[in-house]
Amino acid sequence: MKHAFPVRATLATSAALLATMGVTSAAGSASAHQESSAAAQARPDRQPSEARIAALFDRWNAALLTRDSARVTALYAHDAVLLPTVSPQIRTNHAEIADYFDHFLEKKPVGEKVRSVITVLDENSAIDAGLYRFTLTEKDGTKTTVDARYTYAYEKIRGRWLIVNHHSSVLPAAG
């Protein structure tokens, strides 16, 4: 993706890579954490609230209710990645994302969050992960529900919060 990676994600990825190679540095880790904490504390008024990030799902769900794939797709960055619930194809551009929603919207999906865990990474990026449930309506009027796991990675691009990565998968049976 062309988007800048948040500091925490870059640090976590670097630490994970170093750990797999057997390299650890408690001092380096503590220093990096202090730097990212100091940066966050320096601009607390610019950090979006968890409620602001939670509202992005409501915006997305409202777009689903329009049954207009273009409106839903407009909420995704141009180079976003969508790993959809009911398709094996990875969608990596607006045309592919719109194609998925053209078909998904035929089932008149209505989503509701069951559980959400929001992590605000910085003033321009956040992650919302959890469980949601969709009520789908078939052409004959039959309604079904699908419980799924989700992760939305959001980034503020040119002043607008957009989805840069969206993963959704059917919730496995308890086992």
TrEMBL record:
Domain annotation Calcium/calmodulin-dependent protein kinase II association-domain: ranges: 50-171
SUPFAM superfamilies, per the entry: NTF2-like
One Pfam short name: CaMKII_AD
Record key words, sorted: Signal
N-terminal signal peptide: 1-26
Annotated GO MF terms: calcium/calmodulin-dependent protein kinase activity; calmodulin binding
InterPro entries reported for this sequence: Ca/CaM-dep_prot_kinase-assoc (IPR013543), NTF2-like_dom_sf (IPR032710), Steroid_delta5-4_isomerase (IPR011944), UCP028470_steroid_isom-rel (IPR016887)
Keyword Chloroplast applies: no
Record-given protein name: SgcJ/EcaC family oxidoreductase
Species name: Streptomyces jumonjinensis
